[in-house]
Design a protein that fits this description.
Structural class: alpha+beta
Number of strands: 14
Strand content: 15-25%
Largest sheet: 7 strands, antiparallel
Distance between the termini: 89 Å
Length: about 400
């Protein structure tokens, strides 16, 4: 510019003063910037970790180098702390969900991801959407979440706030209380059982015993007392069997199901003959081995065959079947020609203490509940369906080999 002014306008402007000012101002400006950066690093170091903001135990040839080394250590410490916190959340025994201000789930540990497999960290979703995907219901009055398969989780949540915003989000812990709820339900059912099923025959026995001296034919009363006593014994025996099944593991071994079914038919022969009911067994001629608990399967067959004989009309047929529908699977079938399950039992035929029904006699609900639990212990499946032409048909599929744990 100075040269152009001389050539064009004949003016001479001395640039030395401006150049000197720039040369002097640049180091001063650089020094000021370094001072600001140094003050900022000191403040951040004190904020992140006060005990790490000291000037000792750091290396560097000048102030800036020492501050950079100090900041590096603090950043490494924060990174390790964050990784430690993440591991703690992952190792938590409960499912942990973190929701942001909008209600979207932005963080979940491994257990929570198992509950909500469709959740993705890169695509946060509202909790309500995740619950709908899994068919779960959030009961806000009891603070429980119930999944479609019957699992229950107690939900505890707490809001947190970041320093720069109010109501920043919510952390929620889901604790599995399925076993506790199951035990509570069983206690309620047990109370109903003791107050109704067990109490009724005892009251009948007491009433009948009081009439013995006044009755002209005490033999009839003795027979009725015996029936009620046998009913009480059967209820107690079934209840003990279910309780024992809950506390002990089955003893699996290779057994011949053909022989088990033949023995069950032999045990039921007297009852079927007394009621003029025919037992028709359809089973293979050769052995059919399966890894089962023989005592549990035998009692299962006794319960099903006994119920079929009890409810089937005189002169009808109870059909027993044993087949191998596919490799590795055996099928047991018990079908009768009776009236079928009553409506109050059809909704849940395997309820532990099912709806009371006068025709059922002793052990209302306990026998079928025992059957269901035995099938579950063996990793099988049971189906209850109407029998063609009337009656009920029980179909049980059992694996021939026990699944590895």
């Amino acid at each position: 510019v100075a040269v152009a002014l001389v050539l064009l306008a004949g003016l001479w402007v001395q640039p030395g003063v401006a150049l000197l000012a720039v040369l002097l101002a640049y180091p001063l400006w650089s020094w000021r910037r370094l001072t600001s950066v140094s003050a900022y690093l000191e403040a951040e170091a004190a904020f992140l970790r006060p005990e790490g903001a000291g000037r000792a135990d750091v290396e560097g040839f000048d102030q800036i180098a020492r501050q950079v080394a100090r900041m590096h250590r603090l950043v490494s410490h924060v990174s390790r702390s964050f990784a430690f916190l993440r591991k703690v959340i992952e190792a938590a025994p409960d499912a942990i969900l973190v929701r942001d201000r909008a209600g979207d789930v932005v963080m979940a540990n491994r257990i929570a991801q198992g509950l909500f497999p469709r959740w993705r960290e890169d695509a946060p979703q509202p909790l309500a959407s995740l619950l709908d995907d899994e068919g779960a219901v959030h009961h806000r009055d009891t603070r429980e979440i119930t999944f479609a398969d019957g699992r229950n989780y107690l939900a505890a949540s707490s809001a947190f706030e970041l320093e720069d915003a109010e109501g920043s989000g919510t952390i929620m812990a889901l604790r599995d209380v399925s076993d506790s709820r199951r035990r509570e339900r069983e206690r309620r059912e047990m109370l109903e059982f003791l107050s109704h099923d067990m109490r009724s025959p005892q009251v009948a026995i007491i009433g009948l015993a009081g009439r013995v001296a006044k009755e002209s034919e005490p033999g009839q009363l003795a027979s009725r007392i015996r029936v009620q006593a046998e009913r009480t014994l059967k209820l107690a025996d079934d209840f003990v069997q279910i309780a024992r099944l809950e506390e002990t593991d089955p003893e699996f071994e290779d057994c011949d199901l053909v022989a088990l079914l033949e023995e069950a038919c032999d045990r039921a022969y007297a009852a079927s003959r007394a009621r003029r009911i025919k037992l028709a067994a359809q089973m293979p001629e050769d052995q059919l081995l399966a890894e089962i608990d023989a005592s549990l399967i035998a009692r299962l067959l006794d319960n099903l065959i006994g119920n079929a004989i009890k409810f089937a009309p005189a002169g009808s047929t109870v059909t027993l079947g044993l087949e191998e529908p596919s490799p590795g699977l055996v099928r047991l079938v018990v079908a009768d020609e009776g009236p079928g399950l009553p409506p109050e039992r059809s909704a849940d035929p395997f309820a532990r203490f099912g709806a009371h029904e006068s025709r059922a006699g002793p052990s209302v609900g306990l026998g079928l509940n025992f059957v269901k639990r035995v099938v579950d212990k063996h990793g099988g499946a049971i189906l209850v369906e109407p029998n063609g032409g009337g009656g009920t048909r029980f179909v049980i599929d059992l694996p021939q080999q026990r699944a590895p744990r």
